[in-house]
Specification:
This protein is mostly helical. The chain has one domain. The protein contains 6 helices and 2 strands. The longest helix is centred in the last third of the chain and has 33 residues. It is elongated.
Length: 189
Amino acid sequence: MKVDISLSKEAFFAAIGIGLFTFFYGLLSGSLEFWMAPVAFITSAFYAGYESPKNTSIKVSISFGMGILWGIIAYSLFQIPNMNMLLWTSSVFGIMAFIAIILQDTIMPFTRIPAWLLGWGTFMEISLNKTITNWPLFIIELAACMLLGVYFLDFGSNWLKKMLYLVSPEKQKTSKSLSTGSTKNPKEN
């Protein structure tokens, strides 16, 4: 059984871009000893799948920052002693999510709720499962990894893909005329 495996130029160039920028990010994050470096993969995948124009990166970045702020507030509220933790944490999450959506729809329309909640959730996942000994460093590193995901991994791999297209442009495609069955250059139609 013969299997025909064909790879489009788009997929090939995207693979090169993502592969190289992931390699460079690994070198960078390893050199800087970012222990939460995988956060960049989460934010890069989120932003790439967000299907918004690239000019929304600032809004998404601000929203990641709001998520971190929301995480700090929620984490602080979770430190109140003698609370029924299940009821308390559920209430905090519910009320804060409600407030985030109200804020975004009224006085903070420049934010994006999916990115805000992703930043908040990432903060909570890490801070509730790992002992944080240096909070300012944790917050700076988390923000840096989130932003590197968008601006280094996503934008960088897209930039490289564009450069590869400049070096190896698409060949002129031909199309068949429906009426004559002849092959013509699309510019002649």
